[in-house]
Amino acid sequence: xxxxxxxxxxxxxxxxxxxxxxxxxxxxxxxxxxxxxxxxxxxxxxxxxxxxxxxxxxxxxxxxxxxxxxxxxxxxxxxxxxxxxxxxxxxxxxxxxxxxxxxxxxxxxxxxxxxxxxxxxxxxxxxxxxxxxxxxxxxxxxxxxxxxxxxxxxxxxxxxxxxxxxxxxxxxxxxxxxxxxxxxxxxxxxxxxxxxxxxxxxxxxxxxxxxxxxxxxxxxxxxxxxxxxxxxxxxxxxxxxxxxxxxxxxxxxxxxxxxxxxxxxxxxxxxxxxxxxxxxxxxxxxxxxxxxxxxxxxxxxxxxxxxxxxxxxxxxxxxxxxxxxxxxxxxxxxxxxxxxxxxxxx
Length: 346
What we know:
Elements: H1 12-20, H2 31-43, E1 54-60, H3 75-86, H4 90-97, E2 101-108, E3 119-121, H5 139-158, E4 163-169, H6 173-185, H7 189-192, H8 201-218, H9 225-232, H10 235-250, E5 253-256, H11 259-271, E6 279-281, H12 289-296, H13 313-317, H14 319-331, H15 335-338
Parallel strand pairs: 1-2, 1-4, 2-3, 4-5, 5-6
C-alpha cells in the first residue's frame, strides 16, 4: 500500500560543510543545525525551502467513552469541530499566526453536519465501537480510514505543501492512544494512560482498568500493528497513520504534534520504520505517557510547554524554529562570503 524509502544522503556531507561554514563557532546553533541538516537531506537540496505549510485536524468519536473514561461528554467532539469551523479555537489562532493552511476533517464524528463547506467529510462511521467489548473498527473500516488519510494529505501536497502537520479532536482518544501504545510497546497501561481532559485520581484509575480490560480481550488477536489499530484505535488516529505514511512516501517534512499524533506515528513506524527520518517532533505533551513514547522512538521534541490540548497546536507553534533552521542555512553568511576568519586562520 505504501512504498517508503529513506531520504537520499547525496548532499549530507555538503550540507554539513555548509552549516559548519557559517559565521559561527561549529555547533553553536545546537539542535537548529541538526534540523537544518535533516530538512536539507529530506529535500535532497543545499537550499531547502518550506512551502505552503498545512495542518490537518482529524476528528472522530470513540465508543469507549460510554465506559466513563472522560469527564466530558462525547458531544464535545462535534461542538469543538464547530468551533474550529467558526475560527474560535486555539488551532485557528496559531495557524493564522504562523501562516498555516488549516483543514478540518470529519473522520467519524457521531453527528451529522449539514452545509459545512469548511469541513472535509471523510466519515467512516458515527464513531467507533467500544473496544472493551469488541474491536473498535472492522478491518475494512481501518483500511478505508488509512486510504482517506492518505488521499486528504496527498491533495495538499499536490497543491504545493512540502511541510505537513497533523492534529486531532476526539473525546476519549487519549484512552485509545494509551491502549495502542501499551499493546505495541508492551508497556503497562498505568505507564501509558494520563488524565486526558482532566480526570481526577479515581477517574484515572478507572481509565487504566478499562484499558487493561481491552488489552486482555484483544491480546490474542492483535498480531500486527494494523490489528492493534483496528482493535483499539479511532478513525481519526487511523487517518493520521495513513496521512503520515503518505507524507513520508511523498518525501515531505512531517511535524508530529502531541501524544495522540505520536501514537499514530508509532503504528506507522511499525509498518515502515523509514517514516521516522521524515519527522520533526514538535513538543512533549503533558500527557504522562508521551515522554515514555518519545523515549521509545528515540525522539527529541523541540518544545516542552506543558501542553495537553491536541488540535495540532504544538506542531504549529514549533514552526518558527523549523523556519529558522532553513533561513540560517540559506541566508546566513559564510566565513568566506563575509571575510571573517575561521578556526585555524591567521
